[in-house]
Amino acid sequence: MGLQPRKVLDNSTSDILEGMNGQQVEEFDPPEVRALIEGQFLSMRAHSERFGMPSPPRRIIAAGGASADQSISDPVLSLQPLRPLELH
């Protein structure tokens, strides 16, 4: 299981997608996926710091459907061990 995008758009300097050419891909290389996921984590960290959360964080809470996906949770595990928590 992994992230499987449907299309990749060519580089563009416009905000409009009209007339852009895309190419269908089967999947991205693992380093590209990891870079995307890590970038999202860094963005979340930056946002949380702006709201006064401690830096570095003392804990990470992974919630929602994506948290069950190993290809998403593994990069987090490499940064900080996770203690599973189940809500009933």
TrEMBL record:
UniProt cross-references to Gene3D superfamilies, sorted A to Z: 3.30.420.40
Gene Ontology molecular function: kinase activity
Taxonomy, superkingdom: Eukaryota
UniProt keywords, alphabetically: Kinase, Transferase
Descriptive protein name: SUGAR KINASE
Source species: Salix koriyanagi
